[in-house]
Amino acid sequence: MSKPQEPHRPFFPFGNPFRMISPKGSNLSPSLLALVNSFEEALSARLRKLETVGDVLSLTWMQCAMESLCETHEEIKKLIVALELPVSDWDEKWIDVYLDISIKLLDISNTFSSELSRMNQGHLLIQCSLHNLESNSQQQLARACSFLNNWRHQRRSKNPRLEKCCSFLDGLMETLNLPKVKNSAKGKVLMRALYGVKVQTLFICSIFVALFSGSSKRLFELDVAGTYLWAEDFNHLRGVVNGIIRNQQSSQHDSLVKELLGVDTAVEKLYPMMQDGSMTGKEDPLQISITQLRAEAEKLSSGLDLLMKEVDSFFHAVLTGRDALLSNLRATCTATESAEGKRIRQPVS
What we know:
The protein is an all-alpha fold. Helices cover 72% and strands 0% of the residues. It has helices spanning 17-21, 30-49, 59-83, 92-132, 138-156, 160-174, 185-213, 231-248, 258-274, 285-345. Residues 1-26 and 335-345 have low confidence and may be disordered. Pfam families: BPS1 (PF03087). One of its GO terms (biological process) is root development. It comes from Trapa natans (Water chestnut).
C-alpha cells in the first residue's frame, strides 16, 4: 500500500524573507543606494562569468566557482566597512546569525578539503602504479596492479563527512530568513547584501556536494525574486548548471567530477589487461592504455592543486571575517566597560 503523499512543504519554513530584507528606496540615501547597487552589480558580473569558464563538471569550473565565492565574501567585508556601521549598533540577532553562518561555512570548507585530500590520496596511488609500470619487471607489474586495485577500492568508498555537510547546508537554508530590520537604512542594506552572499554560497556549495557525491538531491532550487539586480543572472545560471548535473547523474559513479571519471575510465580499461602479466611491445594496447592513464592523472593532479588552493582561500576569507567581527565586539565591550568605570569613579558634586 502506497503512502499518502505528504503535503507540500514551503521552501521558507519561517515566512517570506523578501518582505523582510528588501529595502524601500525612499528610506535609502543616494550613497547607500550606490553601495548596494555596486555590490549587486558586481555579484551579477561574477555569476555571468561562471557561464563562460568551461565544463560545469570539471575541476576547472569548480575552481572558478570557489574563486567567485571568495570574491563575494571579500566584497561583503568591504561593504560592512563602507557602511560605517559600528559593531555596537549591530542588532544582537544580526551578530548571532553572522557567527552561526560562519561556523557552518568553516565546517563545509573543511568537508570539501577532506574530500579533495581523499582524491589526492587516490592520485598518489595512480602515480605509484605508473612509476612501477616504467619497468618491465614482473614484480613491479604486480605492485602496479595492486596500486590500481587500491584505487578501485577507494573509489567505491564514501566520505561520511559529505552527508554531514548536507545538514550544514540545511542549517544555512534556514538562515535565509533574516532578522527583521527596523529603523535602520544601513541595516537593511547589510541584510540585503548578506542575502546575496548566502544564496551564492548555498548554490556553489550544493554543486560541490552534488559533484563529489554523484547525487543531485541537494541542488539549490530557489528562484530569486526580481527585486535583486543579480536575480536574472543567478536564476539563469542555476537552471543551466542544475540541468547539466541532472543529465549527467549516473548510478554507476559516486562522483561526477570529469577529471576523476577520466582516471576511472583509464584504470578500468588498463586493470584487466594487466592481469595476464603481459608487457610486450611499446605500441601494444597495454602501453597505449598506460599512456592514456598518465595523461588523465596529470589532468586530475593539475585540477586538484588549483581547487585545493581556492578552498583554502575560502576558509581563510570566512575565518578572517569572523575574527574581525569578534575582535570589534571585544573592543566595543572594553570601551563600554571603560566608559562606565570612569562614570562610576567620578565624584558626586
